[in-house]
Each structure stands twice: as structure tokens, then as C-alpha cells.
TrEMBL record:
Keywords: Membrane, Transmembrane, Transmembrane helix. It comes from the Bacteria. The chain crosses the membrane at residues 26-48, 68-92, 104-120, 132-153, 165-188, 200-218. The keyword Signal does not apply. This is DUF998 domain-containing protein. Signal peptide: none annotated.
Length: 225
């Protein structure tokens, strides 16, 4: 009798696991692909640049034996970027199958992907360090982001006007002034304090805006489809 019960439990468990794998196969494949890409990148850097695996996998403060508060302000911005992207992409996932939310879904997907791009750029210092190192001027990258922002505004203008755009204006003001401070070398008191405070101000309001549009989209279309 116990053997039969164990067989039934194992069969039921196997059935559940199979159902979960089939249902979320694309998510599992995406997770596996991301992991593989990062592994390949790390191994390539190790052999090409001679970097140790520890320096690529370890925590920065631990590697350099730095105080835990080193870079905490910048890391807070990364957390807010991540939260903002998560709000939009999760809401998009919930709404994409609803026919009356087509515009809202595209808006959330576009906003989430744009935020994800900014997160990656900010995390790995693409426009500040990496791309200029390979001959792409920082001003060119910033111009590309500006053009992308303009396209974003044009494509989703109806959804933007139907949303709480006060939060968006606050975010744009903070980020815009931060970029202006960096490029024109204009600041008060301390350059890093002034520039990065404006930047985090903008990121915080962008995260708030993403939360707002995600919440609104889940309760009803942001604009008429």
C-alpha cells in the first residue's frame, strides 16, 4: 500500500512539473539563454583580457575591500530602474492577450524595454566608459538616446497624455538637467552631488511613473484602442 501511494505521489508530482515546464517554456528558455550569454561573455573576457573569474563574479565592495557604503547611491538608482522595468513588463505580460488593451500593451512593452536599456547602460557604464573606449563618442550615444526618447514620445503620445504625465515631466526634468550638467559642466557646490542627485530624482519619478501607468493599465485601457 505505501508503495502504491508513493507511486501516485511521484506520478502526480511529475505531471505537475511537466505542466509547469510546458506552460512556462518560453520563460524557461529565456532564462537559460540569458544565463548562457552571460557565461559565454565571462569566459570570453577571461581568455581575451585575462580577467579572473572572481573579479567578474564577486561583489565589487568585497573584491576591493571597500566600505559597504561605496556606490550605494548609484546602486539605489539601479534598483529603481529595475523596479520600473519590472512594473511595465509584468503589466504587459498580464494584458497582452486582451484585445481591448492592445495600445496599452504596446505602450507598456515599449516603456519597459526602453527602461531596461537604460538600466543596462547605467549598470555597465556603456555611454560613459565602454562605448567611448571603442571609439563611439559619449555625445553620440546621448544624441541617440535623445532621438529614441523623441520617437517614444511620438509613438505613444496618446497613451502618455492619458497617463499621469506630471510624473513623467518630473522624471524628464531631473534626467535632462543631469545630462545638461554633465555635458555643459554646470553644477552647484559639488559636481557629483548636483549631477547624481538630479539623476536619482529623475529615476525615482520614472519608477513612480512606470508604477502609475502599470496600475492604471491593469484597471482599464490607458487610451482608446
Amino acid at each position: 500500500m505505501p508503495t502504491e501511494v508513493n507511486k501516485e505521489v511521484r506520478a502526480h508530482l511529475l505531471k505537475q512539473i511537466t505542466q509547469h515546464v510546458v506552460r512556462d517554456r518560453f520563460v524557461l528558455m529565456a532564462a537559460l539563454l540569458i544565463w548562457l550569454c552571460l557565461e559565454v561573455a565571462m569566459i570570453a573576457i577571461h581568455f581575451i583580457k585575462g580577467a579572473s573569474f572572481y573579479k567578474m563574479t564577486g561583489d565589487v565592495t568585497a573584491i576591493f575591500q571597500a566600505p559597504p557604503w561605496i556606490g550605494f547611491y548609484s546602486q539605489a538608482g539601479l534598483l529603481l530602474w529595475s523596479a520600473a522595468a519590472s512594473f511595465c513588463l509584468l503589466a504587459y505580460k498580464s494584458l497582452r492577450s486582451r484585445s481591448n488593451h492592445a495600445t496599452s500593451s504596446r505602450f507598456l512593452l515599449g516603456t519597459g524595454c526602453f527602461t531596461l536599456l537604460l538600466l543596462i547602460d547605467d549598470t555597465y557604464l556603456l555611454h560613459e566608459t565602454v562605448l567611448p573606449h571603442y571609439g563611439i563618442p559619449q555625445i553620440l550615444v546621448q544624441s541617440a538616446y535623445l532621438a529614441g526618447s523623441f520617437i517614444y514620445l511620438c509613438c505613444f503620445r496618446k497613451a502618455l497624455l492619458a497617463s499621469n504625465y506630471v510624473l513623467l515631466l518630473a522624471a524628464g526634468t531631473g534626467l535632462g538637467l543631469s545630462i545638461l550638467s554633465d555635458t555643459a559642466h554646470l553644477w552647484l557646490l559639488d559636481r557629483h552631488l548636483f549631477e547624481d542627485s538630479l539623476k536619482l530624482f529623475g529615476i525615482a519619478f520614472w519608477a513612480a511613473y512606470c508604477f502609475s501607468i502599470s496600475k492604471s493599465a491593469l484597471t482599464g485601457p490607458l487610451s482608446k484602442d
